[in-house]
Amino acid sequence: METVWFHVDMDAFYASVEQLDNPEYRGKPLVVGGLGNRGVVSACSYEARAFGVHSAMPMYQARKLCPQAAFVRGRMERYSQISRQVIAILHEFSPVVQQISIDEAFLDMTGTQRLFGKSREAALLLKKRVKEETSLNISVGIGSSRFIAKMASDYDKPDGLYRVSPGKEIAFVDAVGLRKLWGIGESTLSSLARQGIRTVAQLRTYEEGRLRHLFGEAAGTYLWKICRGIDPGIHTGSTKSHSISTEMTFPIDVTDGEVLSQNLLGMSHEVMFRAIEEQVVSSTVAIKLRFSDFTTISAQTTVATPLYSAEQVYALAKELLHGKWRTPQPVRLLGVGLYQVESSQRAIQQELFDDPYQRKRELEKTVLALRAQGKQLQKAALMHPKETEES
DNA sequence: TCTGGGGTCCTAGGACCC
DNA sequence: TCTGGGGTCCTAGGACCC
Predict the structure, then answer these.
(1) Range from A27-41, A64-78, A347-361 carrying the lowest mean pLDDT
(2) Cβ of A58 near strand B (distance < 7 A)
(3) Nucleotides of chain B within 7 Å of a protein C-beta?
(4) Residue A385: is its pLDDT beyond 50?
(5) Does the nearest atom of strand B lie within 7 Å of A294's Cβ?
(6) Is A270 a catalytic residue?
(7) How confident is the model at residue A238 (pLDDT cuts 50, 70, 90)?
């Protein structure tokens, strides 16, 4: 049976939702992103793109290119809500729906012909359903693999529908071009250019062994496959998250250790709350620092038993910070994360129940429950970090 | 006026073990 | 006193994606 994958991508998602909810933005340049002086563009309307604005662009640059645009802060909860609505529609079309981000999903449409007709007809039906229900446009790519479908959805944006016929994969990747192949970024592009490789066809003249020698085992094989339209295995791994992290770029670089500690404490609570919510534990804590010259460093430590309390996370994070930072080095970004997280059900069973930190975790769970009811106990705790440390 | 935040995967080098 | 060669684990950093 012919394998058929759909890739569904919502067009200019955040900006489209804002235009939907706010009629005054419709048909006009709109930029969604961080509004501070250090923000970047998360999404922008097609009207703004006409001015050269694109996502990940620094906000000051977007303002310069398109001063007449409306600039708004993202409303993630609203976007998640619409995202769930769309994903629910996708489930009407296939039992295998693989969501890969807030605005993208793969559908295995293999063998659905009797239900929805040919793949193109099924895609039209899907686009119509989403439009009726949410008033939003999606682009659908159809191909024999996830890799091909993914690039096909991008090929005909916005409101696109593009199908790559089986057997036409090589011609398609040639048409897409090196720059837009999934997994090729700025850095790989210039490495390839240094070898004189500027087109997909040129890349295809290199043997796999040569590519592995030049770019490393994994990257070499990856390049060898994608220039032939062969799926390198994108999004085939487990969809479970392996880490929980948070980070913050300060509006102005921080040189005060007290301020860093305060933020570290808040972030330690945040990641631990999320771990509790997601019912996972971790024994590995990492911090991330970015200095004013944008150099970015990280440090991590793994302890023998899983971490059950935000205080433990904070204590470890603080030690890591002191190993990497000295007053008054200006810090631009600070981050904290838990890594190699695993299901807490299993981990707790392996642990001693008289661990003193278990009690703290129970307490934090209670705080979490209260916070869910709108009681901001966490804030009070953060205002008295010394007490928290000694308790 | 610079360059977000949340993730994943890969690699290189050192420690350690046999 | 003249130093092999795996394998694995850990850490730090880099590339990439949305």
Answers:
(1) A347-361
(2) yes
(3) 1-12
(4) no
(5) yes
(6) no
(7) confident
Phi and psi at residue A337, in whole multiples of 5°?
-145, 155
Nucleotide with minimal C1' distance from the CA of A243 is B7
Enter the pTM of the model.
Answer: 0.89
Find all residues with CB under 8 Å of A231, minimum gap 6, and list them: A145, A146, A147, A148, A225
Question: Check: CATH 3.30.1490.100 for A243-372?
Answer: yes
Q: How many CB atoms lie within 10 A of CB A26?
A: 13
> Which residue is the nearest neighbor of C14, CA to C1'?
A187
**Residue A211 burial (CB count, 10 A):** 23
Spatial separation of the C-alpha atoms in residues A140 and A151, rounded to whole Å: 10
Region of residue A320 (phi > 0: left; psi between -120 and 50: alpha; otherwise: beta): alpha
- Residue extents of the structural domains in chain A: 5-10+83-163, 14-76, 169-226, 243-372
CA atom of A228 to C1′ atom of C18, Å: 25
Whether residue A320 contacts residue A309, with contact meaning beta carbons closer than 8 Å, is answered with no
Instruction: Quote the tokens at residue A58.
Output: 């620094």
Nucleotide nearest to A302 (CA to C1'): C10
If phi over 0 gives left and psi between -120 and 50 gives alpha, with beta otherwise, what is residue A148? alpha
pLDDT band at A387, cuts 50/70/90?
Answer: very low
Mean pLDDT of A22-30: 97
Domain A5-10+83-163 has what CATH class?
Answer: alpha beta
- Burial class from Cβ neighbours inside 10 Å (0-12, 13-18, 19+) for residue A174 reads middle
Catalytic residue among A47, A104, A169, A364: A104
Nucleotide nearest A239 (Cα, C1'): B8
The hierarchical CATH code for the domain A14-76 is 3.40.1170.60
**For residue A150, which phi and psi values (nearest 5 degrees)?**
-60, -45
Task: Look up the CATH architecture of domain A169-226.
Answer: Orthogonal Bundle (1.10)
What is the predicted pLDDT for the residue at A241? 80
For residue range A213-223, list pLDDT tens digits in order.
Answer: 999 999 999 99
